[in-house]
Write a structure and sequence with these properties.
The protein is about 40% helix and about 15% strand. By secondary structure, it is of the alpha/beta class.
């Protein structure tokens, strides 16, 4: 069977990480879930084509031309909340030109609202973890009955029983990155070509704004250290990859696993630099030092707020003391740091935002990534605000994290945007920060990346005006 895997065209400023990539400060992630689906399908001798229309700057006409040449039986589409209208429009264009082709959507938005999706020109929705659901659907020649984890329409909308999550992630083949143009992707301070690696799935923590549990459940499942080392070998030897970002929500949840991986990496002759994101309560100085020795250069932490009141309301389960300690430990062992912050959480005041700004300036991360609190469908935050009548709109195009505020609160959208712009200006336009970044430039590639990041930051600030 022929399957066309598509990260659809999108003309907006920022496509979110739940849709596989994000443009901010020069970042561009590959659609790794599509690459996983491709690898799983190829194990059964299917013909697979993968198009990342965003990375390749492809328009709908390019998509249709590729489809005409490939003649697929099934189109699998990666979708997300802020891009869903554009994704559906892409599906309509495909159906208009190729009415017999079947279309499947997957992702957190499709998982949360399968019936809403199926009222459009979409035939199937993979709910939750997509790989084995799509594989079984293809094996059954697109007959959806009894395919667990699948929703479809046949006179009416039918939602099949839930599919069990993959317990042993080592059974999955490495993502089919050979189908991607790896040279197009970018990481914060990256070497090129680069990619992302997913070493675990599922998050046992209960942050009320996160979609991770929706797709991957709340049980932490991890690949072995040996599997990760073998993937690094494959990336270097077969694809020439020079840098990796671990996409896991909490890469260091199992600290012993990460330490073992680092030991294996130190013993190998692999030359790949890497970075990760995790929680401040799931690292210590010993592990951070080992990670630095193994080629890690940047530790990213979800801080979210400088107000303990707001952290508790979001059920982050961390303290400001733990935040300060982890950033200090990372700096002490020589790692660069990244801080992730959210503005506009329910109940947040200008005083709370000022605490966040002060904390960020105190922590002195090498990069910051900020967003406006956006309650995505399926999250506890969305459900609660919806019940309380505190959502300003369900126009999903407004749910895009950077320039729209969709929560009824004591802060207005213009106030949130002004605070966000003020934060960026205060953080990045500081002599200490600018000098520090200049001193970290080692070659022309570093200089080019710094210029790209500055250009993207300027674009963001102007966009928010």
């Amino acid at each position: 069977m022929k399957i066309f895997l598509l990260n659809p065209p999108f003309e907006g400023f920022c496509r979110t990480s739940e849709c596989q990539f994000e443009v901010r400060g020069g970042w561009l992630y590959p659609p790794i879930e599509l690459a996983y689906i491709a690898a799983v399908l190829r194990e059964s001798d299917n013909q697979v084509m993968l198009l990342d229309a965003v990375a390749e700057n492809a328009k709908i006409g390019d998509v249709l031309r590729d489809m005409e040449l490939f003649t697929p039986d099934l189109v699998v589409v990666s979708c997300g909340t802020p891009t869903i209208f554009s994704d559906i429009e892409t599906a309509r264009s495909i159906k208009k030109e190729f009415p017999s082709v079947k279309i499947l959507f997957y992702g957190s938005h499709a998982t949360a609202l399968p019936s809403e999706i199926l009222r459009q020109e979409i035939d199937f929705v993979a709910i939750g973890e997509p790989e084995l659901t799509i594989k079984e659907l293809v094996e059954k020649r697109l007959e959806p009955e009894n395919v667990n984890g699948l929703a479809y329409k046949k006179d009416k909308i039918i939602i099949n029983p839930t599919r069990a999550l993959i317990q042993n992630l080592d059974i999955l083949p490495f993502p089919a990155r050979d189908l991607l143009k790896n040279e197009l992707y970018r990481l914060p301070y990256g070497r090129i070509p680069c990619t992302v690696v997913q070493s675990s799935r599922g998050c046992p923590f209960r942050c009320i704004f996160c979609t991770s549990m929706l797709v991957y459940g709340n049980k932490f499942r991890a690949r072995s250290a040996e599997s990760l080392l073998n993937e690094f070998k494959h990336l270097q030897e077969d694809l020439g990859i020079r840098e990796v970002f671990f996409l896991d929500d909490t890469f260091t949840f199992d600290m012993e696993r990460v330490e073992k991986f680092c030991d294996l990496l130190i013993e190998s002759d692999i030359d790949i630099s890497w970075s990760f994101q995790s929680r401040v309560d799931k690292v210590d100085k010993k592990l951070l030092r080992k990670m630095k020795d193994a080629g890690c250069y940047l530790a990213g932490f979800g801080v979210e707020s400088g107000s303990q009141k707001i952290l508790d309301s979001l059920r982050k389960g961390i303290t400001l003391g733990q935040v300060r300690e982890s950033f200090k430990n990372a700096r002490d062992v020589g790692l660069s740091t990244g801080g992730f912050f959210i503005f506009g959480s329910p109940g947040e005041t200008k005083e709370d935002i000022e605490k966040t700004v002060k904390l960020a300036l105190e922590l002195k991360p090498d990069l910051v990534k900020t967003s406006i609190m956006t309650p995505l469908p399926g999250t506890e935050l969305f459900v609660n605000l919806d019940k309380e009548g505190k959502l300003l709109t369900k126009d999903w195009s407004k749910y895009e994290f950077t320039s729209s505020y969709v929560i009824k609160s004591n802060l207005k959208e213009d106030e949130i945007k002004d605070e966000l712009k003020r934060f960026y200006r205060k953080f990045y336009i500081r002599p200490h920060y600018v000098l520090g970044q200049i001193l970290k430039i080692k070659n022309f590639s570093d200089l080019r990346q710094k210029f790209r990041s500055f250009s993207s930051l300027s674009s963001f600030i102007n966009k928010a005006n």
